[in-house]
Amino acid sequence: MKVSSRIVVLVAVIALCLLTALGTLFFLSGWGVLVKVVFYAVSAAGIAAGITFFFLKRDALLKSAFILVLFAAFVWAGFAALSAVGKLNEYPSDEAKINRLVEMIRSAGSWGMAVYVFVQILQVVILPLPALVCYLPGVRIWGAGTATLLASAGVLTGSALCYALGRFVGKRAVIWIAGKENTEKYSAYIAGRGKFIFVLMQILPFFPDDILCLAAGLTAMNFAFFAAVMIIVRPAIIAMYCYFGSGALIPFHGWGIPVWIAIFAVCIALAVLSFKYQDKIEKKLVGIFTRRKARPKTSEAEENASDEGDGATAKDAEIIVASGENVEKPPEPQKNTDKKP
Asked: 0.70 cut: is pTM over it?
């Protein structure tokens, strides 16, 4: 992006964050400290991220920050609207308010589910949201099983849309969404190292799933293989998030509290390391899982070339010995010593 465009995006990010913070101050006064702190923290993080990415000239990350802040502003607006319509400020505690909010969403029936599925589609195509943020609200409202089905439907639909964007719209659209560097890097990974590495990158948490789907559409990978990988891998990962996040496996009380604290600490550490050393981690993982496959081919090709060369030399030597001919060097051309008169 040009400098003027980056300035416009940065101003938009700061404005949305300030509006969200001021709206929380004036329109969510009846809520507890925790809810307010969440919106304040999102606003502060958005401003910090926007300024950082602006000065580092990371255009793709600056665009992502803008999209995330815009989504957060819409979430806040919906939260405030539901609070006003449901008169949630009349309830004494945040727990009572949240329970009333869950009842309101459940009462919406298929409309509430459709909105949840639509959010999952958005988080694949344009919203780089963390998985826990996307899946856990559905777990709280409908339970782990239903949330897994709904989230899987949205994620699979969004993945197919990303593939279609890469296949039919072209590289320019993918570059606008993912950035030129990411587009070229992941397209080269998928095209140059085969289908196995694509499956591996879908399973491991260090690789961006949405960008991989976009890049897959730019390569020769057929849709049947792509769809098969998505259907097998994505629902299994979503189910893991939903069932762990439901508290059925690790409770949110008693012995589960220190375990959850440790899990969140590890997740935060991995997120920081992934952000800071993403390129190195990706290259290391790709190298580990492709080196074994590449080395035998290289050594076999070298051995064949070496055997062919040695065989040709030995064959020539046998022919010369059998014929008894002496190989002489061709006579050197004589120099013309005649002098011109």
From this structure: no
